[in-house]
Every structure is written in C-alpha cells, then in structure tokens.
Design brief:
The model is unreliable at 3-17 (pLDDT under 50). The protein has three helices and eight strands. It is α+β, with helices and mostly antiparallel strands. Strand 1 (49-57) and strand 2 form a beta hairpin.
Amino acid sequence: MKFIFTLILATSFCFAFSQNTEKEINNMVWKPFTQAWEANDGEAFNKIHSKDVWRINPGRLLIGEEYKSRNSMRMNGVKKDRIIEFTFETRTSNGDNAYEVGYYRITDTSGLEPKFYVGRFHVALKKIDGQWKIIQDWDTDKINDVEITPESISSRNFTHFN
C-alpha cells in the first residue's frame, strides 16, 4: 500500500511539473514567437532563441548570429496578413531542457482566397537564466518524401498563441 501511495504521489508531482513546464514554454516561447512572427519583428523573434541557436532546414544549417542576422534582415517590421498556429505531437522535458515535435500552419489572407502553408517541426529548448530559449529549430514540409498538406493534418487541433 505504501508503494502505491508513493507511486501515485510521484506521478502526480511529475504531471504537475510537466503542466507547469508546458505553461512556461507556451508563455515564454510560443506566445512571443507567434507575436514576433506575425508582427514580422526580427528583433523580438531573435530574443526567444539562444545566442548559439541551430536553425536547420533541409540542405541548410545556420548557427547563432548567422541565423539571427538573416531574421533581422528578413523580418523588417512590415506586418503581413498571416497568422501561425501550432499543434504538438510530443512535448518532453526533464527540468531545464525540453524537446517538442509538432506541426505548424500558416494562413495567409493577403489574397482573395486564404492560402495555407504547413510543415513539421522539431524544437529543442533550454531554460537559460530563468528564460526558456529555442536552442535548435528544425522543420520540413515532407515526411519520408511525402509532402505534408493542409488536408493531411486537418484533423489536428491547432493553437494560436496570442
């Protein structure tokens, strides 16, 4: 009986910690990520990344300042008619480190009809000086050479962090 009580107590503590970590990451990373990305604000976007972040796309690796300087040039503060939403497959943490896998969906409403852009991401995060930062960000629009389409992920529940 004592073992079962200890197991329940340990499981409850881990679950509560996990919920707290998820809430922290949502507030410290995904909400500012969404706001900066939608505002096209490179400076704010760079603040949620570590100084030596790795940004990986198929065929390209940018590290630290190289990635951040591209963000600053590309994200010039001119707001675009688009929103970004996320859905997660896996969210794992062990204290000050976390790893998340999921999908993003971008809705562009600048034309007569909305356009959707989707992809899969893997993000590694680390809590640095009390602040969660993205230390590695990888995404793709294909899984096993099969294109991800809005239809292929339409059953997922997306969240807009604003």
